[in-house]
Each structure stands twice: as C-alpha cells, then as structure tokens.
Amino acid sequence: MRRTGGILQGWRTAKVARKIVAVADDEFYIVRALSVLFNRQGYECVTARDGEEALKLVKRRHPAILFLDLDMPKKNGYDVLREIRANPAYNDVHIILLTAKGVDPEDDFALHLGADGFLLKPFDPAEVLRQAVSVLEAKRGH
Fold first, then answer.
1. How many domains would you assign to the chain?
2. What does the pLDDT average to over 46-74?
3. What is the pLDDT of residues 77-98, one digit of tens each?
4. Is the residue at 113 inside a domain?
5. Domain containing residue 24
6. Tens digits of per-residue pLDDT, 112-134?
7. Averaged pLDDT, 6-16
8. Over 80: is that where the pLDDT of 11 sits?
9. In the list 48, 100, 124, 130, which could disulfide-bond 24, CB 3.0-4.6 Å?
C-alpha cells in the first residue's frame, strides 16, 4: 500500500469534484477488487454487471471515471462507450477499458470512440491507480 501512496496523493490533488468511480464488469471478482481498492482510498465505487446497467449508472451517478469491460452481456463495452461519447453531457466521464483479450493500447477503433485508456486483466492494483491518475491529469490539462 505504501508504494501507491504517492499515486493516490496525485489523484487527490487533481481536484476531482466527483469522487465517484464506476466499475462495469460481469465478473464478480473484478468488480469486488476494484470496489475495495477505491473504497479504501476514500472514493465511492458504484458498480454495474452489464452494459445496460452501465449506461444507467453513468446517467444516474455521473462518475469521474468508468472502468468498462469490453465483453459484457446485453451491451458490449464498445457499444456502451459509443453511447456515452455520443452525449456531450458525459464528455467529462473518463473511460478506461478492461479486457482479458489483449487489446492493443493503440486500438484505433476504441481511441476513435473516445477510450481514455486500457487495462489488461489480470491487472496490478498499482497500475489501476496509475491509469486513473494519468487519465485525470491528462484531461485536466485540456
């Protein structure tokens, strides 16, 4: 935990108005791991188990970051990403895609749709936090 302290401090200084992190994944252990990780750092973590729930969650809670699985029931991650990015009201929701399929971080299709980052499962908790900080800091600069 000490190794990630500086990372989290950087996130806290990013002046995130909404301290809400959303996780959309149909795998219980992924949802649980990310929820525990962010709750322990003082952030509210809200979850969805499929693509339709993810869209409702974003509309209802407007999270700062959405960790979005690509392969989910009802709507896949690409469809969810496309719908969120089609609505200008959610342009400030940062989206990090989760996949076990080895998506190329330079995936032109996902970047074109508006993905802010990628995490390959299984992931290291420190890398999750690094991605979150990186996305928030990069977007804040624009």
1. 1
2. 95
3. 999 999 999 999 999 999 998 8
4. yes
5. 18-117+133-137
6. 678 888 888 888 888 888 888 77
7. 46
8. no
9. 48
- Strands (DSSP E) contained in the chain are 20-24, 44-48, 65-69, 94-99, 117-120
82, amino acid identity: R
Beta carbons within 10 angstroms of residue 24's beta carbon = 28
Question: What's the whole-model pTM score?
Answer: 0.81
Contact criterion met (CB below 8 Å) for 44 and 19: yes
Q: 142 in a domain, yes or no? A: no
- CATH number of the domain enclosing 76: 3.40.50.2300
Peptide bond into 125 cis (omega under 30): no
Cis peptide, bond prior to residue 73, ω within 30 of zero = no
In a domain, 125, yes or no: no
CA distance 18 to 10: 15
Neighbours of 8 (CB within 10 A): 18
- Token pair, residue 125, equals 């908790």
11 within some domain: no
For residue 75, pLDDT beyond 60: yes
